[in-house]
Specification:
With 153 residues, the chain is mainly α. The radius of gyration is 15 Å and the shape is globular. The protein has one domain.
Length: 153
């Protein structure tokens, strides 16, 4: 089976309901979808420590499954990892437009630029966990920086 086949549930989730098929920059579209999900998810901030681990586990499973059907190590149409990464970043910020914009911008910067250790993870960890983990780190980098700016300074 070739990836993506949107009739297969894991492929549908991996592309975040087809958003990963948008061109150009499917990762940016996936990140934006994650911001919108967070914004419209009722009580997301109060339930984050329940929602986020479950979503990360789901994303890991989906990435591992679709990686078996893909002809590349990290197919560009897989964007559930960007959704998970931006959710990590958003977990650290207040519910404001400025914070959301900062999370989106910093997450995309770290996801594209891949400073160490994100670059090490991207090059050395393979499979479903490798697809996901660099985005989680990019989200953590963005979130910690924004948390410092919004809450510690």
């Amino acid at each position: 089976m070739h990836f993506p086949n949107l009739r297969k549930p894991t492929h549908l989730l991996a592309t975040w309901f087809g958003i990963g098929l948008l061109r150009p920059a499917p990762g940016t579209w996936g990140s934006l979808a994650g911001v919108l999900l967070w914004f419209f998810l009722p009580n997301a901030h109060t339930l984050i420590w329940l929602i986020l681990p479950l979503f990360i586990l789901l994303s890991w499973y989906v990435c591992a499954e679709v990686n078996k059907d893909s002809d590349s190590d990290d197919h560009s149409s897989i964007v559930i990892d960007e959704v998970a990464g931006i959710l990590v970043a958003l977990a650290f910020v207040p519910h404001t437009a400025l914070a959301y914009f900062g999370a989106f911008a910093l997450f995309r910067l770290f996801d594209i630029w891949k400073p160490w250790p994100i670059s090490w993870v991207d090059k050395n960890i393979k499979g479903g966990w490798g697809i996901l983990f660099d985005d989680l780190l990019a989200g953590l980098f963005a979130g910690v920086i924004l948390f410092s700016l919004f809450f510690l300074i």
